Amino acid sequence: MPERTHVPASRVSPVTGDLPALAARFAAACRDAGLPVGPDRAERLTRAVLAAEPATTRRLYHCALATLVTDPAQIPVLERVFAAVFGGLVDEAEHRGDPGSPPLDPAPDAAGPAASGWPGAAGNGIARTGGRTGDRPDRPAETPVRAAASAAERLASRDFDVLTPEELRVLAAAMRRFGIATPPRRSRRTRRAGYGRRIDLRTTLRGARRTAGDPVRLVRRTRRPRPRRLVVLCDISGSMEPYARALLQLLYCAGGAARAEIFTFATRLTRLTRALAHTTPAVALQRASTLAPDWSGGTRIGEALKRFLDDHGARGMARGAVVLIISDGWDTGDPDELGAQMARLSRLAHRVVWANPRTRHADYRPLVGGMAAALPYCDALVSAHRLDALGELLAALADGGPATRRVRPGG
């Protein structure tokens, strides 16, 4: 039986259910045992666990094997560290082609959850199930691993403004499960349909050749539906920075947002549509903060909205579109200017949705000059302040109701 490696309790702390911490601690234990595991491999392990969502330690081991090992000679070291950390619940003989070899049985004073500092209780993220019915079990016991699920569930109920950049990256996998949809509209292009109002004369006459010129069958066409354009105006002032990062990450990760036009504003308007395409969420946010010189600056919503309407919106970008404004309503400009520009926008757009994280409070009232001036021209007002509150935002964007329903001030 190969020599087992004992991982001291001082080097590995108990699991708290936080996936980045789990990957970092296990990678540190592998590095202490001699494996060349750096931050890049620890990040790959985290991404693999998020993608595979392993339910047992056996699957978790395969994630570690695929991401932390680059040479077959490193496999025994990984097996010993994994067995020491997770209590010896993986049969190393299974991976060496010898089904008859006895399973790894860590000594009570060396390996095991208690000795290594990794708990075996279910309340700490790893629950040990099963047991030995004899000296040699038919198959090794498996441990359900709820680290990925518990991390996302724990972070889903926390406001975006208290999340660290690492925790925000953990939520990227959960945000990919969302789908952003906008109401459909009829385009100028048509398609064949049995119930269409318009007759496709050319196709009908072509088919009449088979019936001696008599158009027995009328071919009809109808307009092809297309989703409405989504235009996002995101406030990146100091008070909105954490929410802006989270919602920009949502727009990058969620399905259906690929055709969205994205602008940021604080003291000026910046278009980020091309900069946020074809990259990772972390790089997209880095590009956004680099290209927007007014990031974490002041706020002049009315001037930014006027710039958008003059340069882009009135020329067709906002016509019939769903416009999402992400801002807390704090405006250092003239409220009358903001009200006038919101009136212009409401006449062009199909629907105007305002996401204000301050509305999460039950006693919130739109008494600030900017928010009070803009609210009469909004079709929906949502909070979108944390992950489990994004459903309200997505429902407001997908609502195909008439655009004449405006939010009443103070309501």
From TrEMBL:
Residues 227-390 form the VWFA domain. InterPro entries: UCP010256, Uncharacterised_CoxE, VWF_A, vWFA_dom_sf. Residues 107-130 have a biased composition (Low complexity). It comes from the Bacteria. SMART domains: VWA. Residues 93-148 are annotated as: Disordered. Pfam families: VWA_CoxE. This is VWA domain-containing protein.
